[in-house]
Amino acid sequence: MKRLLGSRAVFFIVMGVLAAIYTLPLMWMVMSSFKSNSEIFSSPLSLPTSIDFSIWADAWVVGNLGRYVFNSFFVTSLSVLAILVFSSLAAYAFSVFDFNGKGILFAMFALGLLMPIQSYFIAQNSLFELLSIKGHRWTLIVPYAAMGIPLAIYLLKVYLDGVPRQLFDAARIDGASDMKMFRVIVLPLLKPGLATVAVFSILASWNEFLLALLYVTNDKFKTIPTGLLAFSSRYVTDYQLLFSALTIVTLPMIAIYVIFHRQVIAGITDGSLK
Amino acid sequence: MRAHRWFTPYLLVLPAMALFAFAILGPVLATGVFSFYEWDGFGAFTSVGIDNYLRAFSDPVFRASFVHVAIYILLTIVLEVGAGLLLAGMVTSRPRGTGFFRVAFFIPVMLPLVVVAVVWGFVYNPDFGLINGVLEAVGLGTLANVWLGDTRTALISVSIVSGWVFAGFFMAIFYAAINQIPTEIVEAARIDGASEIQTFWRVKVPMIRNVIEIAILLAVTGGFQSFDLFFVLTNGGPYGATEIPTTYLVKVVFRNQNVGYGSAMAMIMTATVLAMGAVYLWVRKRADVDGGTA
Questions:
Q1: CA–CA min distance A94, chain B (Å)
Q2: DSSP state of B292
Q3: Which of A39, B251, B257, B287 has its CA at a distance of 20 to 30 angstroms from the CA of residue B46?
Q4: pTM for this structure?
Q5: So where are chain B's domains?
Q6: pLDDT digits over A128-151, tens only?
Q7: Which CATH class is domain A64-273?
Q8: ipTM for this prediction
C-alpha cells in the first residue's frame, strides 16, 4: 500500500511538472502582459508587481482586435455553414442513391482529400484576381468552404453508410419524397457526424493563414491570424501591448476548448484519422 | 436505391461539386498548365516546355529547401509522434485522474499557428526571451543564444515549436487507440508480472502499430506542407537556413511574380506528397502480406 501510494504521488508530481513546463510559454505570455516594457526587459522571469487589466482593454482598442475577431467569426460561421449544408446533401446522394457517374463524381472529391494546398493556391489566386473575388469581407469563405467539402462528404458518407438500408426502403414504400427522406431520416441520424465535421471545419477556418495572407490585404477584413501578425509588426517594440493582445485572443479560445474539450478532441482525432 | 426523380442525386451533389470544381479542381489543373509557361501574372504567356521543371531541379535554393524540410520532418517525427506516444503511455498508465493532463497537453493544437509563432518568437527572443531567461537564472547563461538568428539552431528551434504544438495532438490519437485495446490483454500482461513500462512497450505499442504508422504519415505529409510557423518565425532566414519549399514558393510567386516557375515547383511538391502516400500504402500492403495481420 505504501509503495503504491509512493509511486502514485511520484507519477502525479512528474506529470504536474511536465504539464507546468508545457504550459509555461502561455503562462509567461499572460504574466508579461501585466509588466511594463522595462520590466519585461530587465527581469523577463519575474512575476508582475500588479495585475492591471486596463492594458488588455487598451490592446483591444488600439489593435482593432474586435474587428479581427468579428471577421474571423463571420468567415468561419459562413464557411462552416456552407460545408455542412453542401456536404450533407452530397453525402446523402452518394450513400443512398444509385446514379450514372456516381463513381467518377465521388473519385473527384476523393482526389480533393489528397491534394495539398500547394497544388492549387497559385492558380486559385490568379482566378480570384481575375474575377475580383479577392479583398472582400466574404473572400475567404469561398476557398475555406471548398477546402472543407471533400473531407466532410467523406466523413458524412461513412456515417450514413452505417444506417440500415431497410430504413430508406420503408420510407420509400410509405411514399416519402427524396427531400423528405433527407429531412426525416438523414439529417437526424447525421447529427453526431455533423458535430465532428463542424469541430474540424471551425478550427481549420479559424486558424487558416496562408490564403488569408494572400487574399486579404485590407486591414478592415483581416481575420485573427493575419490581423495579429499585422498588429505585431505595427507595434513591434511595444511588448506589453503585444503580450496583452496575444493573451486576450488566446484565453477565450482556451476557455471554450476546456468547456468542450471532449467534443473538440474527438472531432479533431476522428477527422484526421479517416 | 434509385431516386424518386432521376435528377435528384445530381441536384444534391451540384452545390458541393460546383464550389469544389471552381475553387480547387480547376485551379489544380490550371497550376499544371501554368507550369509549362513563363508568366508574370499579368502579361502574355510564353510557352517554355519543361524548362521550369529543369530550372527547379537545378535551383540550389529549391534543392536546399527539400533538405531543410526533410530534417524538419525527421525532427518532428521524434518531437511530435515520439513525444506524443510517450505522453499517451503516461496518461494511460493510470485508470483515473489523468483527464486534466490530457486537456492541458492538447491546448496548443487549438491555437492558430500564427499566434503560437508570435508567442514563441518572444520565447526565443535573445534579449528578454523565456529560454535565455531560464538559462541565465539557472547559471547556464553562457548557453544563451540568438536561437532563431543562428544558422545552427534556427531549424531545430522551429521544430521544437512544432513539437510543442502537435505532441498533444498525437497523444490524443494514441490515447484513443490504446483505450481500444481489449482490457483482458492488458490485464493478462499485468497478471504475468509485467511492469507498467513493459506493458506499454511490449503490449500497448505493438497493438497500436497501425495507428503509429498513420501518425508518422500524417507528420511526414503535414510537415512537408508546413508554412505558418516558418513564415512568422524566420521566413526562410537566417541566410536561407530555414527555407522550406512553401516559403520559397510564396516568395517566387508573390514577390518575384514568377507564376510559371512557381507552378512547376508546386507540381513537384504535389507529386512528392502523393508519392509519400503511395509509399505508405505500398509499405502497408507488404506488411500485411508478410505479417499476415490485417
A1: 8
A2: -
A3: B251
A4: 0.91
A5: 31-291
A6: 999 999 989 999 999 999 999 999
A7: mainly alpha
A8: 0.90
Residues 122-161 of chain B whose Cβ lies under 8 A from any Cβ of chain A = 122-123, 127-130, 132-134, 137
Element (H, E) at B42: none
| B 54-83 → A contacts, CB under 8 A | none
CA angle, residues A118, A121, A125, in degrees to nearest 5: 160
Interchain proximity A116–B90, CB inside 8 Å: no
Mutation to test the A interface, candidates B12, B31, B81, B124, most A Cβ within 10 Å: B12
Predicted pLDDT of residue A5: 54
What distance in Å separates residue A210's CA from the closest CA in chain B? Answer: 7
Least confident residue range of A22-26, B138-142, B177-181, B229-233: B138-142
Residues of B in contact with A108 (CB under 8 A): 17, 20-21, 25
Contact: B13, A243; criterion CB under 8 Å: no
- Chain B residues touching residue A28 (CB < 8 angstroms): 123, 130
Mean pLDDT of the region A236-253? 90
Q: What are the C-alpha distances in Å from B76 to residues B54, B215, B216, B243, B291?
A: 30, 11, 9, 16, 28
**Helix B259-291 crosses helix B245-254 at what angle (to 10 degrees)?**
160
Task: Quote the DSSP letter at residue B37.
Answer: E
Residue ranges of the domains in chain A? 64-273
CB B223 within 8 A of CB B76: yes
SS3 B38: strand
The class of domain B31-291 in CATH terms is mainly alpha
Cβ of B107 within 8 Å of Cβ of A254? The answer is: yes
> Nearest CA of chain B to the CA of A53: how many Å?
19
- Dig out the grid coordinates for B148 from the structure: 532563431
Of residues A96, A129, A273, nearest to B1 (C-beta) = A96
| Cis amide prior to B238 (ω within 30 degrees) | yes
Helix (H, G, I), strand (E, B) or coil at B262: helix
In the predicted model, is pLDDT for residue A198 greater than 70?
A: yes
User: How many inter-chain contacts (A to B, CB under 8 Å) are there?
Assistant: 265
B60/B137: higher pLDDT: B60
User: In this structure, are residues A247 and A33 in contact, taking their beta carbons and an 8 Å threshold?
Assistant: yes
- Kindly give, in sequence order, each residue whose CB lies less than 8 Å from that of residue A75, ignoring residues fewer than 6 positions away: A137, A138, A140, A141, A144, A205, A223
Cβ pair A209:B112 closer than 8 A: yes
